[in-house]
Amino acid sequence: MTTAPDRPELDAEGAVELAELEALAAAMSEDEVEGVPPVAGPQDWE
Amino acid sequence: MSAPASAGARVEAAIVATERLNPPLNAYLHLDPEGARAVAAEQDAIDAARGVEAGPDPARPLAGMPVCIKDIVDVAGMPTTAGGDGWLRRPDADATVVARLRAAGAVVIGKGNTNEFACGIDGRNPHKGDCRNPYDQGRLSGGSSSGPAASVAAGMAEGSVGTDTSGSIRLPAALCGVVGIRPTRGLVPAEGVVPLAWSLDAVGPLAGDVATAASLLDVMAGRPQAPAPRPEVAGLRLGLEGSMLDLCEEPVVEAIGETATALRDSGAEVTDCALPDLKRGIAIHRIIQAVEVAAAHAPWFAAQRDRYAPEVRSRIEPGYHLGAELYLRAQRHRRLFTREFAAAMDGLDAILTPASPVLAPPLEAEEITVRGRRRRVRPALLSCVAPFSQLDCPAISVPVGLRDGLPVGLQLLGRPGTEPLLLQIAAAIEAALGPLPRPT
Question: pTM for this structure?
Answer without folding.
Answer: 0.96
